[in-house]
Amino acid sequence: MTDLVIRTLTASDAHLFDALPDPLGAREAHRRTRFHPDWKRVALRDGEVVARGAWWGGPDDTEPVNINWFDVAEGDEEAGAELLRSAPRQVELEINLPGGWRDDPALLAAAETRFTAARAAGYELLVERFLYRWTPDRGLPDRPGRVTFRAEPDDTVFFDALRRIHSATLDAHALKAVEEGGLDRAAQEELDFFHWCPSPRAWWRTAHTPDGDLAGIHIPAHNPSGPTIAFIGVVPEHRGHGYAYDLLADCTHHLVAQGAEHISAATDRGNVPMAAGFAKAGFPVVRERVNFHPATGPADQVG
Questions:
Q1: Residue 207 pLDDT grade (very low, low, confident, very high; cuts 50, 70, 90)
Q2: For a designed S-S bond to 207, which of 71, 91, 147, 297 qualifies (C-beta 3.0 to 4.6 A apart)?
Q3: CB count in 10 Å sphere of residue 41
Q4: Cα(16)–Cα(42) distance, integer angstroms
Q5: Which residues lie below 8 Å from residue 162, measured CB to CB, with a gap of 6+?
Q6: Could you read off the pLDDT of 241-250 as tens digits, one per residue?
Q7: Of the candidates 219, 225, 228, which has an alpha carbon nearest to the alpha carbon of residue 192?
Q8: Residue 87 CB contacts under 8 Å (≥ 6 apart), including other chains
């Protein structure tokens, strides 16, 4: 094979990013996404684009949060790997996929090409996730009225709640944070994300049982792409009662009251209770996501 050229794009050659086919529908999925122009990179062989990646962050971020668009031409997985390996910023990789991608041979092959490139670059599987999108035609979910919700201005209340929630969690990102830095780190990462979202701090809510116990928290928010369910969490001692649905229903109502015409959300594929809550609340799965993180050691396989 001829030598590979890796190029960070500029305004004059930004069109190169569009030179690859889009079998996974990334362009439509990212039509609301705003990318920093100089955070897009391509790999070229004989002048032809054979891999591309877009590093993403919020409008005020000086460093990217993740890579959320990554494509590789079939048979050129090493080009995709080199695109990732040579990047100046090593961050988490999101591969976004249409729902039911495992059942379509063409989609499965395209996904596996990207997975192979990621593993060759030293990335390891972190988690698979469901992506949801609520729209008004789904109807607002009923609110059971079993818990009451309060605005709480004290961040330490949310920090303590997050420590309790993450002490027994199914969330892969939280588990990774706990493993690397303990419960304090996991709680602080969540708080930092909530504050990063460009939506009012006053929206955050605590949920309480009739006798006043804290049952959980929910965070209605806007991310740079629009309204989102930023967090739903039930403290361990009040699990088993389906309160995640109560929190999700109230969070949805809150965002709609603030003018939301659509609401995004996500949960880990293995978080069966939360996935059931989203289904009950009328949130359909619209896409799936496979998260990889830069690491060393044997790579896990996507199941």
A1: very high
A2: 147
A3: 22
A4: 8
A5: 186, 187, 190, 191, 217, 233
A6: 999 999 999 9
A7: 219
A8: 41, 53, 55, 67
